[in-house]
Amino acid sequence: MAKGRMLQNRISKSKKMAGLSNDTVRLLYTWMLPHLDVNGNFYADPIMVNNLVFTRLGHSVKVISSALDELSDKGLIVRYHINGEIYLNYPDFLEKQPYLNAAREGLPDIPTLTEESLVSNSGVIAEFSLLSKVKISKENINDGFDEFWKAYPRKVNKREAAQKWKTKKHPPLADILKILEKHKNTNAWKKDDGKFIPYPSTWLNKERWEDEITPVVVPQPKIGVPDYADA
Fold first, then answer.
1. Which terminus of the chain faces fewer neighbouring Cβ atoms within 10 Å, N or C?
2. With helix as H, strand as E and coil as C, how does the chain read?
3. Do 31 and 109 belong to one domain?
4. pLDDT digits (tens, 9 = 90+) for 18-36
5. Domain of 155?
């Protein structure tokens, strides 16, 4: 994660910011910004937010919880649940971080927002219409790596492979999966020990989808030809 994020001066003219109930809510919004990962995500558990963002201010968890509710109501953050944990996303993060260089940042620990993970303030799953109001890149919602990883036969160094998938320009997922199937049918990849199958990160980094693929040739038995060897 980067040590900071860009805060544009137009925030002082923002009607949404001016319309917030108090400076604590405004401060929370701006102070969470440098903590966001490369996708604009952060923890939304009030206890964690209080400890990580307002470390020395001594606010109560109730105050933080109320502030998060207000930011959500105003559309400044979107909250979502994954595997029992609650996270948040800044909907306009990518727009307001024009110089973001994902390749220089580590793989984020926080899972990305999906349609199914959206929640309202009450904790009830939000309607899909809410997602249409969130400006999130398609890559952020579903970058296809999970499908690639599931299809790849040699599952080694998943974290490195995910980073290469994210930063290396590659064909669309559907094309990648078709190419993988062809690779799986080569003599080298079909060997029992699998030692000739490259690590997935290497396969991506070296653009092995460009390789010429020679499929396995299975010799066909001769049918209808009499054997006179013993005649």
1. C
2. CCCCCCCCHHHHHCHHHHCCCCHHHHHHHHHHHHHCCCCCEEECCHHHHHHHCCCCCCCCHHHHHHHHHHHHHCCCCEEEEECCEEEEECCCHHHHCCCCCHHHCCCCCCCCCCCCCEECCCCCECCHHHHHHCCCCHHHHCCCHHHHHHHCCCCCCHHHHHHHHHHCCCCCHHHHHHHHHHHHCEHHHHCCCCCCCCCHHHHHHCCHHHCCCCECCCCCCCCCCCCCCCC
3. yes
4. 999 999 999 999 999 999 9
5. 145-210
